[in-house]
Design goal:
about 550 residues; alpha/beta; eight-stranded mixed sheet; six-stranded mixed sheet; 14 strands
Length: about 550
């Protein structure tokens, strides 16, 4: 039976967790304190919803605890990952990223499968706690025996504390949970043994260390460029095939004018409230400097480059601003471009800003600013390899990355992630972002390379293992003795963050195929359907014991 304050206590516990876990959001901008609070309040709601729905499954539908708990939890994880653009961070399964065999099941049903195993074993352990132990701790309310109890049939009610969640045959639940866990580990060992990693493109990852305040300071554009250019030059002796810069770290925008746009229309697109020279503004749209500079960078390096850049497109319907990845080759300059498809609410656009203008005050950018959503994925081709770019938090969205892999004409060789985590100043967000990205590599059986402003830049193989680079260049080292030489601090084991660095490595190509890419989120969707069924049908189904009493 539920206690009077049970759901309030569960929600409070979830709220304490979410506020502490998401505290890094406040570092982006003072306006983000509101977003931090709002997201924390929202995420905490899933805890009492999980408890209530699990109780409905157990007590109203007689579903065993070891089935109800993982199904409901995974169903709500899927709901959280997709509802209102989604928030697919901090899955329970993400906590297991260091147990490589355990997470291989992600190529069957996504990271949701790891969460299922964790919650299954947790439910089994919880169910093994004797009810007498809970009684001694006074965690049960007093037994309420009906006055006419003696007239009830023997099987009508049990005159002591009992619960349908109690294991009548504990060994059966233990065997079931251990069987699933052992099968998951065995599958992971078999799948890892099937990998035939071969060296693919040699990739150089450039990692600047610039807080967002400097990134948006036009007087710092040249400094940012020089640092990235210098780090790029340090990788050239190691002969990379591809060099990757972080998100929007080439600070001058790439300008594109669509056919049929006239000068008067260009003038109308000038930023409001800014005193500009109209002739310079118009001429800037045909200035080849940005394109020439990018091609010269690629020529000096002798390698192709994937560079994070803002793209301004002047069309008849106005100016569109994209967060883009430009693919550059020494021979042809810019040959392709990908525009980010999954934008961050209030970080890159304001949802419902026209219907609810007050929402604009919660965004850390001017009212007139906002990114346009990209139309589709792009696959970059170079040297016989295929590269699929994703930008910023797109590598945390399982269904988006899976959709890119599934929509390609052939298996993608490498995912490229451009990220700017300089918003969050070396906080735990950097670690969690890297961990979440590692699951995308397992789900798609495709290695991912990440170039991240402030870190953590890395190469992740198809097993989700974060590899040490062949070459690690500490751009902040004063002497060879003080240089950091790896991704992790050898003493603390922590990731090296907040430094200028570059790393070079041959990307291990993966020969395996992924059932998750082919079949999608059927498992998580099934769990979500079952959980929602308990929510909607539960109130109309009476408890068995209550019916017997009546």
């Amino acid at each position: 039976r539920p206690t009077r304050a049970m759901y309030r206590c569960v929600y409070l516990g979830g709220l304490v967790w979410s506020f502490a876990t998401l505290q890094w959001m406040r570092l982006g901008d003072p306006s983000m304190y509101v977003a931090w609070a709002a997201l924390s309040i929202y995420v905490a709601m899933y805890f009492p919803a999980f408890v209530a729905t699990s109780r409905a499954a157990v007590h109203r539908f007689s579903v065993p605890l070891t089935i109800a708990v993982p199904v409901v939890w995974v169903g709500f994880e899927y709901l959280r990952a997709t509802l209102m653009t989604g928030f697919a961070w901090y899955f329970v399964g993400h906590s297991q990223y260091v147990f490589t065999e355990l997470i291989q099941v992600s190529d069957l049903v996504g990271a949701y499968g790891v969460s299922f195993v964790v919650m299954l074993t947790s439910a089994c352990l919880a169910g093994l706690i004797p009810l007498k132990a809970l009684e001694r701790l006074k965690l049960f309310p007093p037994v309420q025996v009906p006055k006419d109890f003696e007239h009830l049939p023997e099987d009508g009610i049990v005159p002591q504390n009992s619960s349908k969640a109690e294991f009548r045959r504990p060994w059966l639940h233990v065997v079931a949970a251990m069987s699933v866990l052992v099968a998951t580990l065995a599958y992971g060992a078999i799948r890892r043994g099937q990998a035939e990693f071969v060296d693919g493109p040699r990739v150089a990852l450039i990692q600047g260390n610039f807080p967002t305040s400097l990134k948006h300071d036009t007087s710092e554009f040249t400094t940012i460029f020089r640092y990235h250019d210098a780090l790029t030059g340090m990788t050239v002796p190691h002969q990379p095939d591809l060099i990757v810069w972080p998100e929007t770290m080439f600070r001058w925008p790439l300008r594109i004018v669509e056919p049929g746009v006239e000068e008067a229309q260009l003038l109308a697109m000038a930023p409001p409230g800014v005193d500009i020279d109209q002739y310079r503004w118009i001429d800037s749209w045909s200035d080849p400097t940005v394109r020439d500079t990018l091609q010269q960078l690629s020529q000096r390096a002798g390698a192709a480059m994937a560079i994070g850049i803002d793209c301004w497109v002047a069309g008849k319907d106005g100016m569109r601003v994209y967060n883009s990845s430009a693919f550059v080759t020494p021979q042809q300059g810019i040959v392709d471009r990908y525009d980010k498809m999954h934008r961050v609410p209030f970080g890159e656009y304001v949802p419902l800003k026209n219907e609810l203008p007050m929402l604009r005050t919660f965004a850390p950018f001017p009212t007139e600013f906002g990114l346009t959503k990209g139309d589709s994925a792009h696959i970059f081709q170079h040297g016989g390899w295929s590269f699929a770019p994703v930008i910023c938090f797109e590598d945390t969205v399982p269904h988006l990355v899976r959709g890119i892999a599934n929509g390609a004409d052939q298996k993608i060789d490498v995912f490229i992630n451009h990220t700017n985590d300089g918003w969050f100043k070396g906080s735990s967000e950097l670690d969690q972002h890297l961990i979440t990205a590692s699951f995308r590599a397992v789900e798609t059986r495709t290695p991912m390379v990440r170039a991240v402003n402030t870190g953590v830049s890395a190469v992740i193989d198809g097993d989700g293992v974060i590899r040490e680079p062949d070459v690690f260049i500490d751009g902040d080292a004063q002497t060879p003795e003080t240089a950091r030489r790896s991704l992790r601090d050898p003493v603390t084991g922590r990731w090296n963050k907040s430094l200028n660095a570059a790393m070079v490595m041959d990307v291990p190509l993966d020969n395996r195929q992924s059932a998750y890419v082919r079949n999608g989120d059927w498992f998580a969707q099934g769990c979500c359907f079952a959980a929602l069924l308990c929510v909607t049908a539960g109130p109309f189904r009476r408890r068995t014991q209550k019916s017997a009493c009546e």
